[in-house]
Each structure stands twice: as C-alpha cells, then as structure tokens.
Amino acid sequence: MSIKQLFAKKWAKRAVNRTNKWAQNPIATQEKVFIMLLQKAKNTAFGQDHQFSQINNYEEFRKHVPIRDYEGLRPYVDRVVAGEADVLWPGKPRYFSKTSGTTSGVKYIPISKDSMPTHIKTAQNALLHYIHHSGNASFVDGKMIFLQGSPILSKTNGIDTGRLSGIVAHYIPSYLQKNRMPSWQTNCIDDWEQKVDAIVEETHNQDMRLISGIPPWVKMYFERLSAKSKKPIKDIFPNFSLFVYGGVNYAPYRLVLEELIGKKVDSVELYPASEGFIAFQDHPEQKGMLLQLDAGIFYEFVEVDKMHEENPQRISLADVKLGVNYAIILNTSAGLWGYNIGDTVEFVNLKPYRVIVSGRIKHFISAFGEHVIGKEVEQAMEEALQQYDARVTEFTVAPQVTPSEGLPHHEWWVAFDSTPEDLSTFAKTLDLSMRKQNTYYDDLITGGVLRPLVIRPLPTDAFEQYMKNIGKLGGQNKTPRLTNDRKIANALSKQF
C-alpha cells in the first residue's frame, strides 16, 4: 500500500469520526446552525426587514420569514447582483453561481465566503467516507476525471460568476492537481461534443481510477472511448474502481454503463446544488444520502401535497417522518431564506438522517389528478429492466390528454440501448408497477378514465440529439424525467 493510500485512510477515519459527532446529535446541530445564521444576518437588509433580532426560536422564524422561490427572493437578489452589500448576508458574495431557470430565466445564486468552504469540505468527505467504509483507497494513486462545466468565470459587478462545477474546479487541492483530468485547456471548451472528444484524446491511455459526472454524459464519454479503442472501459482503464455521480438517479443508467464498462464498479451518490451541498452517500451499503446538518444550512420541510396551500405547514428536522414526500426548504450561510429549491426528498432513515431525492416539485404528471412523481416512474423502470433483457439510455413521461383514438394515457418516450423482445409485455410491467405505487393512477385505470401507458421507442441517442437541439448538451444539464405538459414529447415526435 502506498504512502498516499495510508495517509488517505487515516484522514478518512478522522473525517468519519467528525461526522459521527454531529450525526449523533442532529437536532442540537441544526439548532446551533439556526442560531448562527440568524446572528450573522440580523443586521443585513433582509434580517432587518424580517426582524431577525427579535426571533428567539423556530416558531417565531416561521411567522417572520415566508417560503419563497427564486422569483420571491428576487428583489433582494437583484440588489446583490447590482453590487449592494449586506443585503442577504454580510458583505458581498464571493461568487454567483449562474443557472438557467424554467420560469425565472437566468438565476444568480449567491455563494458567500462562509458557504464556499462547505461545498469543498462536503465533496471531500464523500470520498473519505467511501474510503473508510469500503477500504478502497487505490484511486488516490491514479488519475481522476471530473466531467464538469467550464472553469472560466465572468464578472458581475466585480463578483466572479460561472457554473457551480466550474467554480469548484478552482478549489481542487494541490495534492490532487497532478492526478486530476482533463487539462485546464480542455475543461475550458464550451462545446460539449468537442470537449468530450478532447477528453477522450487526453485520457484514453491514462491510468484512470475515479470518474465523476452526471450519468448520461459519462455514458457519452464511455461510448466515445470504446469507439476509439474498440475495447470495453475495463480494458482501457483496468484500475477504474469508483464512479461518483449526482444530479439524476443512477438506477436507469446502471445496466447500460456497466455493459460499457464491462464490470461492476463501486459508486458514490452526491446531492450538490448551487444553493448548498445538501447530502452525500456516507456508506456504500446503506440506502440514501446523509443530510449535511453542520454545513451552514438550516433545513425545513413541507409535505408536497400541502405546498399549494397559501401558508403550508413547515416543519424542522425534528418532526420529519419516514416515507413522506417533502419539499425541501433551505436557509443558508449565503443568505437564502425560506428558499424553496424545487426539489423533493424522502427520508429513508432517521438515525442518522438519510434522504433520497424523489423528484422536482414542478416535474410531475397530474393531468387527471394522479400526481405521478419522478421516484415512481424511475422505480417502475428499474423493476421492468430487472425482469427483461432490455437496457435504457434515457426516458421521459408526458400525458396524452387528446389522443387521436382511444382513451387518454401516459406516454413513455424511451430511448432503448437494447429493446425488449415483447414491448407490449414490458409496457404492462411498467404499468402494473405504477398502479401499485400510485393509488390515484390505479383508480383512473380501473375507472376507465385512462388506458394503460403507451411506450414510444426512440433511437439510442435520441435524448442527446434533443438536448443538443435545445442548446443544453452536456455539463450539469439533464432531461426532466416527467412533465405535466407535452413540450418535450412534441419536440421528440417531430424529431423522430
């Protein structure tokens, strides 16, 4: 075992011990974060407007600070973007993470000097926890690749601005710089296809051991590597042992990626966001990701079914329950308050608090009152793929309210890498799983309001072509798993 591996294992043990201290005292840890946030921000414009100096407990906080999405908080954010200090958080942000919103256009998410270190520390801890619990530290002796956005930053009234993954690229520790790939020049390429081709050229003869990125874009990288070398990934990178991912559920991609690799490799799931690094998979044998309770974020939760109410009931960590679909609300050390990030989570463990990402609040189908969510369609697909000799590269689901014939139905647009022999039986299996998971959907089928789902098969690279056509190929971009309208479905029907 190398000196670097020995050092990594010792460092990993210390990191796990530090995590255990706050994970075993979750409510006290969150209370400490809550008090810190209020104290630091009480003299900001937002703190004064919402009487932070008079808030003594969470109940009072709920009365003074409403839930807001980006548009609701935008009057304050716009002041920060204009260059004003002490608006949401003391001073000015260290960065703006620039993201594309579906309703707000370009968003500028502030990252402060206080919040930036939590992004880096949490990412490091994810790898250290894996090393400690798996015993595998071999990847520290080889090359690591991070498929991410360009690290080139612009200025917004003097504040560095860019994609989160590009900002994080500036914080790769010096001891990893020699191991890290791709090169800075390649990482700065904006065109995703050109970037992937350049990465292939740089990496195909390297000792790659850790690969990180969003599954659909890692798949694209693997396909081009294999096409160049005429070999599976395990023969190109024989020491590749760890896949780190986030952004989407890995399960629908697992079979395709494992076939491209030619073997199974360990994986670690992350839950990073511009607004904060929320969770990571702390143990390879445990379901879900450990909620980061000491990372400058005070969490609130609202049952998704109640989010439409004028004043939905908000709860803190102390009152969450297993198996409930919650909208996650953030209060952060970058000055986001009562912030509805748009994600939904479900707790799968309370000792310690572990979550899975169950979907997006705006990504659902309820054209007939069924309220189907991302977790349900992904679980149905995973169950079907386990039963049949089939592989899927990507899929999305949309309602068909006005079919040319027959009853309305859900339409599954599926890009198969390997199509099942009997597509109709595959569809029936999907539908049965959906009916078992969602009683409203089952009632609509039973009552003759809907017919069973319909599969629209697509070419293997259909979604890559779709994302390219809308200018969102690569990086952190991903196709919504389901939508309540037919915007994507109509585009796919015209394209294929």
In DSSP terms (H or I, runs of 4 or more residues), the helix count works out at 18
In CATH terms, what is the architecture of the largest domain?
3-Layer(aba) Sandwich
Please count the beta strands (DSSP E, at least 2 residues each). 20
Largest sheet features:
11 strands, mixed
Flag low-confidence runs: none
Query: What is the C-level CATH assignment of the largest domain?
Result: Alpha Beta
Into which percent range does the helicity of residues fall?
25-40%
Structural class: alpha/beta
Strand content: 15-25%
The spatial strand order of the largest sheet comes to 6-3-7-8-9-10-11-15-14-13-12
What fold name stands as the CATH topology of the largest domain? Rossmann fold
The overall pLDDT average reads 93
First-residue to last-residue Cα separation? 53 Å
**How many whole angstroms does the radius of gyration measure?**
23 Å
Number of domains: 2
Outline of the structure:
The protein is of the alpha/beta class and 496 residues long.
Characterise this structure.
The chain has 496 residues and is an alpha/beta fold. It has two domains: 1-359, Rossmann fold; 364-495, GMP Synthetase, Chain A, domain 3, CATH 3.30.300. Helices cover 38% and strands 23% of the residues. It has helices at 3-23, 26-41, 45-49, 58-64, 70-81, 116-134, 164-168, 174-177, 184-187, 192-203, 215-229, 233-236, 251-261, 374-387, 423-437, 439-446, 462-469, 487-495; strands at 95-100, 106-111, 143-146, 154-156, 159-162, 180-181, 208-212, 242-246, 266-273, 276-280, 289-291, 297-303, 325-332, 339-350, 353-360, 364-365, 372-373, 391-400, 409-418, 454-458. It has an eleven-stranded mixed sheet. A hairpin with a 6-residue loop joins strand 13 and strand 14. The longest helix is centred in the first third of the chain and has 21 residues, at 3-23. It is globular.
